[in-house]
Structures are given as C-alpha cells and as structure tokens.
Amino acid sequence: MQTVHPLGIELAFQQLGAEPKADIPQIIWAHGWMQSHVALLPLAKSLEKIGSHLLIDFPGFGYSPMPPEAWGTKDYAEHIAAWLKSFSCDKRIWVGHSFGCRVGIQIAALYPDLIDGLFLIAAPGLPNRRSLWKQLKIKAKIYSYKGLKRLVPFGVSANWLKSRFGSRDYRSAGILRPTFTKIVSEDLTEIVKKVHCPVHLVYGDRDKETPFYIGQQYAKCMQKASFFLLHRYDHCSILTQGKYQVANRLKAFLENTVS
After folding, report:
1. What are 178-234's pLDDT values in tens digits?
2. Which strand (E) or helix (H) includes residue 3?
3. Burial 164-197 (b: 16+ CB within 10 A, else e)
4. Hey, is 226 helix, strand or coil?
5. DSSP 8-class letter at 68
6. By CB atoms within 10 Å of each CB, which of 19, 140, 163, 230 scores lowest?
7. Strands ordered across the beta sheet of 117-121
8. pTM of the model
9. How many CB atoms within 10 Å of residue 134?
10. For residue 41, which of 1, 14, 10 has the smallest C-alpha distance?
11. 92 in Cβ contact with 84 (< 8 Å)
C-alpha cells in the first residue's frame, strides 16, 4: 500500500499494472461501504495488463484513517479529486461498486475534466420505489424507534434500540454511523444530471440493496449511459461469482471509451 495526503488527509491506495503516465489509461477502483480495495482486487488483477490501476481505500476504511468529521459523498469526492489532479492523464475511468459509485458520480459532476468514463456496479443514490405497505412499515418502525428513544433516560438500552431498529450497515458502521446516516440520506437525482461522460451501469437481478430499477432510472438521467443486467447475482456476489462477466463488460467499456 502507498499513501498520499490530498487536502492534508491521508489516503491509502494500491497500484497495479503500468506506472501512471500521461499516455496510459488510468483506472480508479472505488470500493463499497464497509469494504476496502481488497473487494475489487481480483477484478482489477484480471485487467492488470490494461493501463495503470489505482485501488483506493476511502478515509475510514481499509488502511486509510478516519475522516476529520462526518463526511458526505461530496466531501469524499473533493478529497479524491484533489489527488487525481496531481496526475497527468489523457484518459481516466472510474470503476465503482455501491458506495464507490456515489463518489464517482459526484466527481464526474463536479470535476468533469477529471473523469472520462464511469463504470458503475450496483450504484445506489436514487430513491427506492416502495409499495404503500412497505412505506407504512418503515414509518411505523421510525415512530416506534422515536417513541422508545424517549425512554432511554428511564432505563431502555440505547444499544438495544440500535440493534433492534438499525439496518445491518448502520449496526456495523460503528464510529462511521454519522457518515453513514449522512450518505444514505443523499439523493443524487440532480447531481447525476450534470454527468456528461460515458457511463455503463451493471446490476444483479437479485440485488435487494440496490434494485436494478435504480440503474434504469440512472440511465434515463444521463446523456451517455447504458444499462446491463446480470442474472443470478446479488449486491455482493456480482463481484465474486459474477467477476468474469463484469470483467468482460468493463473490458469492452474501456476499449470503447479509451480508444
């Protein structure tokens, strides 16, 4: 692992393939929530001979220390963008999974000169379509949580409330919970309209965390977007069992975008 300090904040990354140079395509790999660069390493290694690969650990994950405060995706984007500006690069492709997609979308919208293409795997960031029954269940859960939270001074365990009512990602976030809460409340609908580079969206048809209709919505919001659905994969297995299919999609995207 190597480290840099964009905006004075430490960032760890691993480099694969060729050395970063102006005439060599650069591929940035951005992992999902509560993961690290390791989650994308097998996929990156399968394409190691194509360009220069930089696999990052977002602040708060892997080998990178915590951010100085609760960050939203724009904060992460500004931090990574400051680092990317230090490279001389003709073509740069951002490959993201889940949370990494959110940050890539922000960079492409805010700093269009830094990103030449987005390859997004299971990208969240748009509102979920929920049935009326599901909406009612969520509201009932929120009201129950708020009501019981008032009883904490009288002996109700705060930790029990978090374990009972918090999502799996929220429970596992630990000290990153303020950051998690900030990120999942973001709606990228207006941000994504500012993305003008080519985009390829890949989803698994069994993904319950980011249903594939979110990718279809994204494709409608962007000028140069394409959507592809992989069958039999969920939010995580798309990177493992679906690795070779994703690699083939990415290789084709690189050939079309970089050439």
Report:
1. 888 889 889 999 999 999 999 999 999 999 999 999 999 999 999 899 999 999 999
2. strand 2-4
3. ebbeebbeebeebbebbebbbebebeebbeebeb
4. strand
5. S
6. 19
7. 2-4, 11-17, 52-57, 26-30, 92-97, 117-121, 199-204, 225-230
8. 0.84
9. 11
10. 14
11. yes
Calpha distance 259→256 (Å, rounded): 6
- How many residues can be counted in the chain? 259
Q: What CATH number does the domain located at 2-127+187-258 have?
A: 3.40.50.1820
Q: How many CB atoms lie within 10 A of CB 152?
A: 12
Residues of the chain with CATH 3.40.50.1820: 2-127+187-258
Strand partners, 126: none
Summarize pLDDT for 6-55 with one digit per residue, the tens.
999 999 999 998 887 777 889 999 999 999 999 999 999 999 988 899 99
